[in-house]
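Priority: low. Protein: Transporter. Input follows.
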Amino acid sequence: MAHGAVFRTHKVEEDENTVRGNWTNKREYLLSMIGMAVGLGNIWRFPYLAYKNGGGAFLIPYFIMLICLGVPLYFLETALGQFCSQGPINTWSAVPLLQGVGMAGLIGNVMVSIYYGVILSYTLYYLFASFQYPLPWTNVLDGVNCTSPQHVAVNVTSMSVSNWTRENRSCTTSNITTSLTEQYWDQVVLQRSSGLGETGSIVWQLALCLLLSSIIIAAVLLKGIKSSGKVVYFTATFPYVVLTILLIRGLTLEGAKDGIDFYIGSKSNLTKLAEIEVWRDAATQIFYSLSVGFGGVTALSSYNKFQNNLVVDTFLICIINCATSIFAGFAIFSILGYMAHIYGIPIEEVTKEGFGLAFIVYPAALANLPISPLWSILFFLMLFTLGLDSQFAGMELITTCLHDAFPKYIEKKRALIAIVTCAFMFLLGLPCVTQAGIYWVTLIDHFVAGWVVLVIGFLEVFGIFYIYGGRRFITDIEMMIGTKSVWFWLYWRLCWYFVTPFVTLVSIILVLSLAMSIPPTYGTVEYPAWGLDLGWCMAVFCIVLIPATALYKLAGAQGSFRKVLLCSPSEDWHPYLDVHRGERYSQERFHTGNVVDDEPSCRTCCLS
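Result:
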């Protein structure tokens, strides 16, 4: 045990948190964590980054960042939640000065959950539209059906689309260059306005889909983890079934080999490794795909039993998440290779990321397959379940923080809190389903889901290992998993003290410089100055909570030099553990003489 201190434990018959509850079993916890980590970004962002940054060569910085950044941060957040059985705000009672870090993560999570809910409404819209034959985006021109086959061009990514002329009921060629699926996305689904300043009306179809997804999430969260833990048996596994089906089908198509070669095969470019942008993309992709920073990992792991083996969980979840990204790339690019083959165009011209891949390019590819509605239904149902799992975690984080803040009032009202929270998020999402909604979604994604989460991650590592104390934290972990050798902790110490803070700080600088130099756009539409200012305000608001909360805590602190500037655990740090863990540890003070004065054991400090 660290510092030579020996902890005297009391045997308890049941390791169950009677106040907050625990996961019913280990499977539900693992599936929930995998479902949160494996999201839409694994499908529509990683494959694009891989092909853009050198194909198979991109896996080198990707796995380096996984080892140096992803795994250490994931383990840290899991250990924090499991140790004190509290959400991401109350865990910072360990370092009250940085309790604003948890609040910043919560607000950032709320903003991200708003646009994630809107993305779910998009997938539901396409899912319902897929129950038609032919698929509606195969013959829509300017919002009207142009059913004459001779009038439908075949180039999916760049072609002259016919204008519908009501006078002669015929299709005449215009200079508009777009695709059928892109036109369907812009004019039918989004009914997109000309810019952020033109709000337009609410797109009622999307609003109804948003309402439906909110109702589904509320129903799943009625009993918290007890109910969501059952649903993830389907939502966390179904995407793998569909990806496997799509991959098998894709490999049977002509051009699939070219697509896979383009993705990760013979066209790998090792010279890309000399570009700093490649390493930046690898770091940010690892950070975002594992969902660290905003508090979801801490919230879900807070329902673990105290002696759960979080080391195995961390490696298992991180490996599955990264393997899924690579696996999804094969399924995506095999279909894109087929698409490029049938149209006789380079794969580069059919490859996009984000919305362009999910709602423009891939639907066009699926429309060319036999029994196209079936493939479209499977694909969009997969996207919906992927998004649901991530949204479950985001909403569970909100309700967990509310429960931690007001346990006496909320303990028996979880169902009501879930319904009210989902209703509130539905209302916040309504501006994003107006005709200017896609601009709001892009704005939030660019500013809030960017450098903000990196700042939070950096402060987590710095606060725990340089203020709370790295050796103290390792001692806390050993209470849960047992004493480990010095060699076991060598990797973790190296990362937590040096590598992870350094890599995170460099990533912040790179991402922030990019955000400042390249303003967001949606296609060719640029944002007005007031829109960019609003985006920066959203990001800065999250970060400002950190120093603002520190000043508030300092103003209310009592005692010697304001409790050493709130760098020692607060008085309620121990009651959390007493209430939620039971009377496990001896509360007598140790006087072994081996405890370092400036960094005592957590139990020595807090239980005296």
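The first strand starts at residue 140 and ends at 141. The mean pLDDT is 80.
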